[in-house]
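Record 1 of the preview.
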Amino acid sequence: MNAPDILVIDDEVQIRRLLRLTLASAGYGVREAETASLGLNEAVVRHPDAIILDLGLPDMSGLEVLRRLREWTQLPVLILSVRGEETDKIAALDAGADDYLTKPFGGGELLARMRALLRRTQTSPTTKVEQFGDVVVDFTKRLVTKAGVEVHLAAKEYAVLRLLLQHRGKVVTHRHLLTEVWGPGHAADTHYLRVNMTNLRKKIESTPDRPRYLKTESGIGYRFSEAVDEVAPAGENSPRDA
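->
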């Protein structure tokens, strides 16, 4: 299993260096961004396992960064700030932060809090093996097989499948899929999703034009279902259904 990847968004060079040394010594991968805009872009492109965020960034407040992140992802976020007032902590937690640590901080406490954040996310359904029909998805190995043969999924195809499995039986809207997988700047690009879903069905479904598992909710989104009697009509992949 790959080491967790942590994104550090902080404008202080010394703090970033300290965090890199502390996290790397514990086996984490570390990415850095010195501004809010760079950090948001890294979050979209890199999909880290967790984010360490400073509140006092030069181009945007950390609270606004939090709000923008929570529009499309539930990645765990640890606030690291010199602001230690209770009101600051409450505002950050209400904006979507998972934890709050005040500078200066101890390396041991930082690592303990990071382990706790990652443990909570690792309890989600996407950290185990899922099976439907002759398809097996091993999320810890990022491996998909069909009838025992490995299925090679593109990164976006895998991300869409993971998200649908995470919300088994529930409709996942086009907007949610697009912002989570492609980023918030692509919330209206339904053609990306339509092409991706067509390719994914060809690799996963036994009859792609009559999908059993990857269902279309016309005009709304997609849903993963194992109901035997829910056989989609032919032509479900038409552009109007994306």
